């Protein structure tokens, strides 16, 4: 790899063999999905991926697989990103959170990695883009509303976005580091604009959540450390009735549910961050508004299926792996580490 070139990762079943290729793929995406082979024939994979500084992209050509992102994986992965995929061939069926989802060739699909999913894919070829949530927050009040939306190829802006994705993947091997950073910014800007334009037409966001939600959410974020934070307190701070507050938050599951999800999400990310390895779990729980470590542990386990300590230990294991030598494509552990350090 030339000096200044874009960091990359490659796996081919043609050179590595079916079993080794699948094992490398499974390890490289272990923070995103648990995958399982579903076909009976020898497994086939051609994988290329690149790190552009503020986003990652990959090209995948694979035999049929199942993909699972369970609550425990959400908790321990340390990812706060959206995954945008263009399916060039094949597709899948499954669920994104509580919603059924089906994707066909030409479709663009979005997954919020703060949520769960389960899909069963046929043999497929796709382009995948991992984009930090922060890029979406200036366009959409609740980026989680994008989870599971599908853009069909007959949507004009979706067609433009698909053409751009193909052009970028074709040209990214020739980019130098500074060009890659510029390409990442352009990609994030186009993707977020197109996706958020169509989001309001989706069945889950047919009632727009605009500036009232944003103002209230900002107040909530600032007060998540306070265990006494509740709808009555927020309504009083903003000078609105509780009925109005409930109406604004009804499309996203209510005020109390939103507060709980944001506290748990922030705590899970803090537990996964390597810079917090020496901090006490109790400290992290208190700063995210839980009245006691015991309460935090109980709610965390009920939500994610494992304890805060177990989530931290599983996350820490990734950071103790040795770095890959420079100059060659990354190995699976380093590729997984790239995802963890990806920020807007």
Alpha carbon gap, first and last residue: 25 Å
Shape: globular
| SS-based class | alpha+beta
Mean pLDDT: 84
Name of the CATH class of the largest domain: Mainly Beta
H/I helix tally: 14
At CATH level 2, the architecture of the largest domain is Sandwich
Number of E-state strands:
12
Radius of gyration (Å): 20 Å
Describe what you observe in this structure.
There is one protein chain. The protein has 344 residues and is an alpha+beta fold. It folds into two domains: 8-205 and 327-341, Regulatory protein AraC (Jelly Rolls), CATH 2.60.120; 211-319, Homeodomain-like (Arc Repressor Mutant, subunit A, Orthogonal Bundle). 44% of the residues lie in helices and 20% in strands. A hairpin with a 2-residue loop joins β7 (92-96) and β8. The model is unreliable at 203-211 and 321-327 (pLDDT under 50).
Characteristic terms for this protein:
344 residues; alpha+beta; Jelly Rolls; Arc Repressor Mutant, subunit A; 2 domains; 7-stranded antiparallel beta sheet; 5-stranded antiparallel beta sheet
Give a quick precis of the structure.
The chain has 344 residues and is of the alpha+beta class. It is 44% helix and 20% strand.
List the helices and strands and how they pair.
Elements: E1 8-12, H1 13-16, H2 18-28, E2 34-37, E3 45-51, E4 56-62, E5 65-69, H3 71-77, E6 81-89, E7 92-96, E8 99-103, E9 108-112, E10 117-121, E11 124-132, H4 134-137, E12 150-151, H5 156-171, H6 177-199, H7 211-223, H8 231-238, H9 242-249, H10 255-272, H11 281-287, H12 293-304, H13 308-319, H14 332-341
């Amino acid at each position: 790899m030339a000096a200044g070139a874009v960091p990359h990762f490659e796996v081919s079943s043609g050179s590595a063999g079916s079993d080794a290729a699948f094992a490398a793929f499974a390890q490289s995406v272990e923070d995103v999905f648990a995958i399982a082979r579903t076909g009976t024939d020898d497994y086939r994979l051609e994988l290329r991926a690149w790190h552009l500084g503020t986003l990652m992209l990959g090209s995948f050509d694979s035999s049929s697989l199942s993909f699972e992102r369970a609550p425990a994986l959400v908790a321990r992965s340390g990812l706060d990103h959206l995954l945008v995929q263009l399916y060039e061939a094949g597709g899948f069926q499954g669920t994104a959170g509580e919603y059924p989802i089906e994707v066909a060739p030409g479709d663009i699909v979005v997954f919020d990695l703060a949520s769960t999913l389960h899909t069963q894919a046929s043999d497929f070829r796709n382009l995948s883009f991992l984009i930090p949530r922060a890029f979406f927050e200036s366009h959409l009040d609740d980026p989680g509303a994008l989870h599971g939306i599908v853009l069909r190829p007959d949507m004009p802006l979706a067609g433009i976005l698909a053409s751009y994705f193909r052009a970028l993947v074709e040209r990214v091997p020739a980019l130098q580091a500074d060009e890659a950073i510029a390409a990442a910014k352009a990609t994030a800007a186009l993707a977020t604009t197109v996706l958020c334009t169509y989001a309001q037409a989706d069945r889950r966001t047919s009632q727009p959540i605009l500036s009232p939600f944003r103002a209230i959410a900002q107040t909530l974020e600032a007060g998540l450390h306070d265990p006494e934070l509740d709808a009555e307190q927020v309504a009083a701070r903003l000078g609105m009735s509780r009925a109005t507050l409930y109406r604004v938050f009804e499309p996203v599951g209510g005020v109390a549910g939103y507060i709980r999800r944001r506290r748990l999400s922030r705590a899970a990310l803090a537990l996964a961050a390597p810079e917090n390895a020496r901090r006490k779990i109790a400290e992290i729980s208190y700063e995210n508004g839980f009245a006691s470590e015991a309460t935090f542990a109980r709610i965390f386990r009920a939500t994610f299926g494992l304890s805060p300590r177990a989530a931290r230990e599983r996350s820490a294991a990734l950071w103790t792996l040795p770095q890959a030598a420079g100059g060659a494509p990354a190995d699976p552990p380093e590729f997984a580490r790239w995802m963890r350090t990806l920020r807007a």
